[in-house]
Amino acid sequence: MTLQGKTAIITGSNSGIGLGIARELAKAGADVVLNSFTDRDEDHALAAQIAEEFGVTARYIKADMSKGDECRALIEKAGGCDILVNNAGIQHVAPIDQFPVEKWDAIIAINMNSAFHTMAAALPSMRERGWGRIVNIASAHGLTASPYKAAYIAAKHGVVGMTKTVALETAEEPITCNAICPGYVLTPLVEAQIPDTMKEYNMSREDVVKNVMLKRQPSKEFATVEQMGGTTVFLCSDAAAQITGTTISVDGGWTAL
Q1: How far apart are CA 78 and CA 58, in angstroms?
Q2: Which of 13, 65, 168, 180 could make an SS bond with 34 (beta carbons 3.0 to 4.6 A apart)?
Q3: How many CB atoms lie within 10 A of CB 214?
Q4: Burial of 95 (C-beta count, 10 Å sphere; 0-12/13-18/19+)
Q5: What pLDDT does 97 receive?
Q6: Domains of the chain (ranges plus CATH)?
Q7: pTM to 2 decimals?
Q8: What's the rounded Cα separation, in Å, for the pair 59 and 238?
Q9: Catalytic residue among 60, 148, 152, 201
Q10: Phi, psi of 248 (to 5 degrees)
Q11: Reduced to 3 states, what is the DSSP secondary structure of residue 62?
Q12: Mean pLDDT, range 131-152, rounded to an integer
């Protein structure tokens, strides 16, 4: 599955899932544009490292996904877009009657509104190029719910809905739009939470992972960032040309319950 000659923009991609996806796309031959809201030497070094490792062009472009104008400017600065991966996201947990309004606004902006702005900005480029792939990183919480995550769940359900709408609007064009719905993915952020959780519950690492963190994930195994990247590469391939407007769950059986 080669993506040589394609340019991929991945939001929220200087760590975790986004970086894993960027690396797999680069491995498949795509030129990649990394993004986050920071502008550090380390961010640009990540792009340089990917370029050297996979022999592609890789750049880092700062853009704050909570701001619509910066979302759209990211697409413009990239100079073209064949593949758009909307991955940027944040989380906050609280009962709805105690949910801070500023956290609600930020989560809706970054997790959902940003996808609207980037898709709206990228589609003209895809149409001009005669080909396009949009992959929205939703969540198992885009298909189901759990307490205390009202903003995140509302945003991810919204992303799934937008995915279907854009797929229908582009159905007669060589452009697809799909959503990946991961369960728990082992990222550096999640890894860093394990020792504190072990102390809190006085449990071993294995028990914390299986009985606390992965309580709702029947496989009792984390998905990996490489698996997220591989699924994205598949959705960008010719094999997936007739897959559009759907969700692919990478959740160890979570949403099968």
Answers
A1: 10
A2: 13
A3: 18
A4: exposed
A5: 98
A6: 7-185+223-256 (3.40.50.720)
A7: 0.97
A8: 25
A9: 152
A10: -115, 120
A11: strand
A12: 98
User: To 10 degrees, the CA torsion angle through 117, 148, 19, 72?
Assistant: 10
Active site residue 201: no
CA distance 247 to 144: 13
Q: Which residues contact 246 (CB under 8 A, 6 or more apart)?
A: 167, 178, 179
d(CA 153, CA 139): 8
Ramachandran category for residue 177: left, alpha or beta (phi over 0 → left; psi -120 to 50 → alpha): beta
Pairing of strands 31-36, 7-10: parallel
- State the Cα–Cα distance between residues 17 and 177, nearest whole angstrom: 19
DSSP codes joined into one string, 100-162: -HHHHHHHHIIIIIHHHHHHHHHHHHHHHHT-EEEEEE--GGGTS--TT-HHHHHHHHHHHHH
Six token digits for residue 210: 């299986």
What single letter denotes the amino acid at residue 228? M
Give me 17's structure tokens.
């899932």
Reply yes or no on whether the pLDDT at 240 is more than 90.
yes
Q: What are phi and psi of 178, to 5 degrees?
A: -135, 165
The candidate with the shortest Cα–Cα distance to 89, out of 181, 185, 178, 11, is: 11
pLDDT in tens, 85-95: 999 999 999 99
H or E, element range at 25: helix 16-27
